[in-house]
Every structure is written in structure tokens, then in C-alpha cells.
Amino acid sequence: MARVKDVSSIEGIRDNQLVGYGIVVGLEGTGDSQQTTFPAQTLAATLLRMGVSVPAASIRVQNLAAVFVAATLPPFARPGTKIDITVSSAGDARSLEGGLLLMTPLYGADGKIYAQAQGPLVVGGYSVGMNGNVKQVNQPNTARVPFGGIVERGVPLELEGRTNFSLLLNDADFRSAEAMAQAINHQLGREAARALDSRRVDLTVKPGEDIPELLAEVESINVPVFPRAKVVVNERTGTVVIGGTVVLQPVSILHGGLEVNVVSDFEVSQPSPFSSGGTTQVVQQTRISTTDKPVNRIELKQGATVDDLVRSLQTIGATARDVISILQAMKAAGALEAEIQVL
Fold first, then answer.
1. Are 315 and 253 spatial neighbours (Cβ–Cβ below 8 Å)?
2. Cβ contacts of 110 within 8 Å, gap of 6 or more
3. Cα gap 221→185, rounded to integer Å
4. Structure pTM?
5. Measured at the alpha carbon of residue 73, what is the angle toward residues 68 and 76, in degrees to the nearest 5?
6. Distance between CA atoms of residues 196 and 201, nearest Å
7. pLDDT digits (tens, 9 = 90+) for 264-319
8. pLDDT at 341 over 70
9. Sequence-separated (6 or more) residues with CB below 8 Å from residue 121
10. Which among 60-64, 95-99, 242-246, 288-292 has the top mean pLDDT?
């Protein structure tokens, strides 16, 4: 069981991403180098707006850095609402520690300004270097400014007057959509919800009904969920996650390997003492060794669970790479009733 708000979202009520470009000043010599030209150009343009005319080519400072600023505009945000922002270096600055972000406009996908960002940076790491020795903790080129953005324009979304809403499931499933509609109708005592497809559930509003109260009640309803049987495999890290709904069929697994090692040694052959015409030669000696590992056997009978499979693989000492190969082979043999997703 899960709440409606945890397995679905309301269509139209969503976040919007914002991005902007600005400069960070006040760095202790850890800013962008002179090879990065656009921070100096940005500083020259900023000074020009303030009545100071300085050619960009004559600017020689290392206490500023060009940065990109990212933020998320939450739904129903109004002008004056404060939001968190993330600042990341766009040049070759070594660290943003101690910097101050100057006023930066944040744009939406439509090119309009929705917020302004400014404030001192909070860096979760540091980088210290001297005489070629460097000590670095975490990532000092990315920082945050808590409540550093102020919304200037909100995304219009009016609830008053709406006659229906659409609930969108996070994972498309016809059974989950139908179960959600039935649970909502049972809680409200009327036919208010109807499943339109595997992801969308339509919710009807009665005339004169309090919409925020209705949505709050609907989002708190507990509904049964029917997740898809899935095995997630990350071959880069060797991580395997097996869902609890995975069904195993009877199968026998033989797993072993043949290890072949080829080793090349180079030996120096020298002529005998006082011999004439002899030369020193480098001779390559190649040795080949093979190790045939014994075959490990696993037998899964009818009704075997994922826990039985994991315990059996641990018993034979299978590594994460072995588990990935075995799962893929089981899927090909029809003994694994699940979707394998490779990251």
C-alpha cells in the first residue's frame, strides 16, 4: 500500500527549471585564470552598466569566476518567494570558497526571467595547494546559496473553476490505475475517478467543491500498487538489485571457468668471457599456464524465491560479475520472469 501522492502526480502542478549565467567575486586567488577570457568580459560589461568603462583586455584579476546558476521554481510560487540555488564554475577556477554571487537573472525555457539570484556561497569542500602539493576535500567548484533566489514572476496556475484533474502514475500499469480509481471512489463515496489508460486517472470535481480540500484528501488515500517485476543491473559498479516480485522457474545452473595466463619473461644472454664475435642478446621466454576451475552447480526447484537464489550464489562464492552473467543466462533460458534493466 502507498499514498496517492507517493505513486502519482497531478498533471499541471509541476516544478520548472531555471538557469542563468553570472560571476562570483571575492575569491582568494582561486578564480579563473587569464586564459579564460569570458569572466573578464562579463566583469567589463557589469562595470559598464555601473558607469565604469574598463577594456576587458586590461583586466587582470584572479578573484572572480564565471559560473552557471541553476534553480527549481516550485509550483504556485509567487513574486517574493525565496528559493535555493546551485552555483557551478564554468571556467578553470580552483575553488569558489568565500565567494559572493552577484545579481544574476534566472531564465526559464521560454527565455523569460523568473527569478534573481545573489548571495554568499556555501561550499561543501575545499582545495589547498602549496609547492605542488594539493589537498582537496569534496568538490569546491560547486556551491549552494540557501534562499539565494527571489522569484520575480510566477507560473500562472489557477485551481478555481477547474472541473477535473488528471492523476499521472509514476509507473504505468493498468491494474494500479484501476485500483487507484476504485480506492478514490470508495473514499469519496461517489464515482469521481476513472482510469483512462495505464498512467492517467481522471478526477471529476463537483460544482462548488473546495478544490484544495479535495486534492488533499485524494493525495492521502492509501492505494495498492503492483510494481513491475524488474532486475536492475549496473555492470560498471557490479551492483545487482532484484525486486521482490521476481518469479523464478525450476532451473539448474552450472557455473565454472577456465583461467589462462600467458607470462612473458625477457632474459639477457651474454657471450662467454674472452670469446670473439659474440654479442649480447635479449631472449623472450614465454610460459603458458592454465587453471580449470571446478563447475559449481545450483538447482532451483518449483517455488524457489529470490532469497533462495541469492543464498545459493553466495554459497558458491559468485562475484557480482558472475551474478550478472547468471541472471542474463536465466532470462535467456526463460527461468527468470522479470525485466532486466542494465544501467
1. no
2. none
3. 10
4. 0.70
5. 165
6. 6
7. 566 766 776 666 666 777 666 666 665 656 666 777 777 777 777 777 777 777 77
8. yes
9. 24, 87, 96, 97, 98, 99, 100, 101, 143, 144, 145
10. 95-99
Task: Give the closest residue to 205 by CA, choosing from 188, 219, 221, 223.
Answer: 188
DSSP H/E element including 83: strand 82-89
C-alpha cell at 108: 526559464
Question: Is residue 106 within 8 Å of residue 21, measured between CB atoms?
Answer: no
Of 137, 135, 141, 134, whose CA–CA distance to 125 is shortest? 137
| Cell (9 digits) for 1 | 500500500
Which residue shows C-alpha cell 492517467?
200
Question: Which residues have a Cβ under 8 Å from the Cβ of 273 and sit 6 or more positions away?
Answer: none
- Label residue 254 exposed, middle or buried (CB < 10 Å: 0-12, 13-18, 19+): exposed
For 101, the grid coordinates are 554571487
Provide the H-helix boundaries in the chain: 4-7, 38-49, 174-188, 211-219, 306-315, 320-332
- Provide DSSP, 272-333: PTT-SS---EEEEEEEEEEEEPPPEEEEE-TT--HHHHHHHHHHTT--HHHHHHHHHHHHHT
Grid coordinates given for 343: 544501467
User: What is 171-201 written as a DSSP string?
Assistant: S--HHHHHHHHHHHHHHHTS--EEE-SSSEE
